Amino acid sequence: MKVSVYMVRCSDGSYYTGLTKRDPEERVGEHNAGVVDGYAHSRRPVELVFSETFERIIDAIARERQIKGWSRRKKEALIRYDYEALPDLASRAKKRLD
């Protein structure tokens, strides 16, 4: 079973990260149609900005939790596929520099 982790940019500029067994574009359509209650419902329309697909749901859940714990700057680096910047944007790395 394939599971996707997706991130959308909401109309207020915030980000929402979720999981779906469907195509992420289809899920975004559900968000925009108001079918999905929750964080993004009052922040429509939303735009898909990132997705990754996993073979195992446990891996997708772990990735979703990881991304949800990230700062806005780190999420934006991921959206840009700037993987080299991610370690420097870690909150623990930032605290060491202060």
UniProtKB/TrEMBL annotation:
One Pfam family here: GIY-YIG
Domain (GIY-YIG): residue spans on this chain = 1-77
Record InterPro entries: GIY-YIG_endonuc, GIY-YIG_endonuc_sf, UPF0213_domain
* PROSITE patterns on file: GIY_YIG
* Chain ranges passing through the membrane: none
Q: What PANTHER family has UniProt attached to this entry?
A: UPF0213 PROTEIN YHBQ
Family named by the database record: Belongs to the UPF0213 family.
The protein's name is GIY-YIG nuclease family protein
Origin species: Devosia aurantiaca
